[in-house]
Every structure is written in C-alpha cells, then in structure tokens.
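Protein modeling request. Please complete all fields; requests missing the sequence field cannot be processed.
Requester role: graduate student
Desired output: 3D structure, token encoding
Chains: 1
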Amino acid sequence: MEEKKIEIKAGIKVHQVETKKFKTNLFAIFLSTPLKRETVTQNALIAAILRRGTQTMPTQQIISEKLEEMYGAGFDCGIEKTGDIHTLKFYLETINDEFLPDKEELLEKSLNIIYEIVFKPLTENGCFKEEYVQGEKQNLKQIIEGKIDSKASYALERCVEEMYKNQPYGLYKFGYIEDIDKITSQELYKYYQELIKNCKIDIFVSGANLGNVLEKAKNNPIIQELPERIPEKLENGNKKEKKEEPNLINESMQVTQGKVVMGIDILSKEENSSYVASVYNAILGGGSNSKLFQNVREKASLAYTCGSSYIKRKQSILIRAGIEIENYDKAISIIEKQLEDMKNGEFNEQDIENAKKLLISSIDSIDEEQDTQISYYLGQELANTNITIEEYKDKIQGVKKEQIVELAKSTQINTIFFLKD
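Delivered output (421 residues):
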C-alpha cells in the first residue's frame, strides 16, 4: 500500500491509499476535534444524525436505495476517542470500477454521496429534523446505559475514568445521559455548523488504479464550499507525576466474576519510548506467552483471563483480569510481582523475540483490511508523524533488553479498579 495526500485548503486533506489487494474502494471522512466535556455528547449525536438523511436523500431508506443501486454499496459511521482527540468517522464501501461490466463512474458517485451525508444534512426550519434528533437521542441513551452490559468493558472504562479524572481522556466517547435531554435541535445544528467550519477534516480513498482521485476529491463542489480553517490544536496531554500510592477504587455490582483493571503510567521521556513500550507490553501481557498470562492465569490459576494493552497516545498500560472475588489480594500480589520482575530484567531474549514476533504479526495484519490501512494513516496524520510500515517494524526489531528494563523502571501503578459483588 502507498499513500499520497494533498491539502485542499488549510485544515482539509485528501489521502489516496493505493492498494491492489481488494476489489473494493473504501471512502472515509474523519472530523477530528479536541475531546471536551461540553461537546462529547453532541459529537456522538451528530455522528448518528448525519446518517439519517441529506438534502437530496432525506431518509435512510432513500440513502439505502441509492447505495443498493451502486451494486450494494455499504455505509457506516461512528465515533472514536484517540488520546485526547474525538473523531467522527464515516465510511462508504463500493466495488471498484474495474470489476464492473460497464463503466459506471462509481468513484465519483461515491464521493458525492459521502460528501453529501457529512456536509449537506437534511434540515427543517433551519435546524436538524426534530424527529431524527429525538430518535437518535433515544438510541444514544441506550448505548450509554448499555455500557454496564459488558462488565469487562465497563471496568476498563471506569478505570480510565478514574485514572484520567478531570482530563479529556477520562471522558466516555459516547457522552453522558445528563446532557442528552438538554440538547435541542437548534443548538445541535448550530454546533454542527461550527464543527464543520473549525474541525480538522481528513478524506481518504483506498483502492486500486485510483487515477486522479485526489483532483476529483479536491474539485468536488461540496468540498469547494468548505472554508479554510485553523483547527484547534490536536494534542495529547501526557504530563504525569510520580505517585506515592495508587488510587484504589472498589465498586459493587451484581457480578459472578470480579473484574480487576490496573492502570500503569509510563514516565519515560526517551526517544522511541513508544516502540520500547510496545515490546514491554507484549512481554508483560500481550499474548499467551506473556508473564501475566503464564503466571497469573496458568501457574497460579487465579484468573480466567489476564492480559494487558498499551495506550500509545497516553503512554499508559491497562492490565485486565477476570478473577474469583476472594482471590483479589493474591491476584494483585502476583501482578505486582510481574511488574517488579520487568524492572529487574527477569525476562530473557526468547521472551523479547516472542514479543517482537507477536507485534510484527500485528503490524503485518494492517495491510489485510482497507479500514485498518486507513486507520494506520489517520493515526500518523493525527500524531503528525510519517512512519512507514517497514520503518515501524524496523523500530520494533531494534528494541534492546536494556531499553525495556529502563522503561520498566519508569512505570508506576496509577489506579487499581475492582468491580465486585
């Protein structure tokens, strides 16, 4: 895969991802803005409302019929939290023109449709259609209320919320129930207009033999109407201080299995620390060969599940374990021992090699799906970096044991969240 990009106007870029692995073209638009308490719920609502209807396709049924005419094209949308950035996501997938019996110009039709969905929504009396707003309010309430249905996901969200209390990353990406009823159609549409004027806009087209798609995307009349902008600075606040003791949060709920989530700060400021942290995390809890899996789950039989994930944008690691509630103290003790062992260098070259193989396999899988390719390039764009897949793998391969130990020594437990009955 290969990416080309141009800046159409200040704050608006088009990205072309040339790949011959698929018979489809994937179009995506991302609206990125700082994650804030006062707008997080509005963003989630807008992402849902825009799919309901446009100026020339006023209902979801008409949009679906139009997509069906395009050989069963598919549309999807959503909301994502990437560090302290909130992104509204819109995707349209169609068959590549090369695989059609006749020349259909699906590429241009697709651009027109996704542009219209995002930038030309249906309005009534100068605001979003009331029926659509009320319907999506109810849907959003159900999503927010339903976060307790998965106890593991709920515990993870709560740990992040406590770990990043009063910080953007602690916000729930779908927003808050108490905000929903206060939002009016008029206020929401006014906010949408401000968002479209000021957010960072990234437009992606992925597929084979895309030709002059950058120019087509650039010269579309809908895009030409958009104003230049200087988007609010998109950054991740990673200021962390040493803690004497971790936050201990216990919460009771009707559960059959306890859920432990331990939030770890990485205080290292070393160059390339994110690559070192990826290898560190893979050794600690990234797979079936990891220290957490082997020592907490397999040897001690204290957890049904135990692993960890690395949050690159926040330089944090989240350790998760599903345990019998009475085994809490033992499980915490063994988890803490794994963290100390990492600081003391109690892992070998085979552990490092296994971790690197796991990571390289994950990096190679980026190229297996069009949406993961696009997500990779969007991540580079939002981080203002330009690392190719091969460079990424080389940096992982170059990580040394002494770097891992040094990074391990910079870690501290920030928060331990325990969900019990």
